[in-house]
Amino acid sequence: MNEDDFSGLLKKLGLKTTSKRMAVLSVLAGMDSYASPEEIWQSLKSRIGTIGLPTVYRILEELAAKGVVARIIHPSRQLYYYYCGNAGHHHHFICVSCRRVQDINFCASKEIEVEVSRRLNGRVLSHVLQIDGLCRACSRKKKGANA
Amino acid sequence: MNEDDFSGLLKKLGLKTTSKRMAVLSVLAGMDSYASPEEIWQSLKSRIGTIGLPTVYRILEELAAKGVVARIIHPSRQLYYYYCGNAGHHHHFICVSCRRVQDINFCASKEIEVEVSRRLNGRVLSHVLQIDGLCRACSRKKKGANA
DNA sequence: TATTAAAATAGAAACGGTTTCTATTTATAA
DNA sequence: TTATAAATAGAAACCGTTTCTATTTTAATA
Hints:
Chain A is of the alpha+beta class. Helix content of chain A is 46%, strand content 18%. The first copy, chain A, has helices spanning 6-13, 19-29, 37-48, 53-65, 109-120, 136-146, and strands spanning 69-71, 81-83, 91-95, 101-104, 123-134.
């Protein structure tokens, strides 16, 4: 399956292939930064014409439930989504300046598991880890500004 | 300073000692689980009578900004706060069943730092880690239910 | 290809947690 | 005690998100 074969992806997820779902996937896959439903909606409107904002919300939520898009944790608590092709368990590095999202292939789940079961006698069901900072490009820009 | 000396705590934080702030701290410190502003407000009303919900929001936000209370990450994205006496950097274990919050004295910031700087050439500014699961008591209850 | 049932969508409307606004009250310093 | 800046109450607004219903579309089947 081609990595841009959204129709095949939707079938695999058990979702009907609709023009709106295809369009949402296409827009999401074309970004390397996170976006709000409203922003994605604007982008869709200029690309395919008519689409309802509630439809965008619903599709994003479906894709998030299937694990195809990830939610971003934001201080404003607004919804932000990011298309994540990486299927394995991993975490995200978020650039606070340009919104770029990059995968972090590191996870301390083993150590957390040990800490929780030994110290607390509890059981881990899931965990959330997000790293916020400046990406390579933005980090350089900041340094340049200081010089 | 006594650990229940909220007046001293507020002074230390550069906030005026008001009856409302004292009451909020008192309610928060008496819980070992997280709560929403609305829930805290209800608790305050039955304890001190009159207090405005916006006041509760504002005080919680002030205390969060000072690092005295922690925000909880919740799928519903509703605001939840937890009074956190532990001053050092740490993370929280959240019981998804009873809302109890416990400190986790483990953090992989060193490894994350290395991963981000080496692999991405980026700069870490902060990170969010929350562990969701079942606390000791709830874990036992669940096992009992299965037996 | 035509038919059909179930699923998906548009658009309007509602929703509700959170924030803003302004007059009033309160804490603290002088 | 007084003055002043900060804090609060209560009402209202706000706005991101969800719900509702009529209509359209998909995809399975004949």
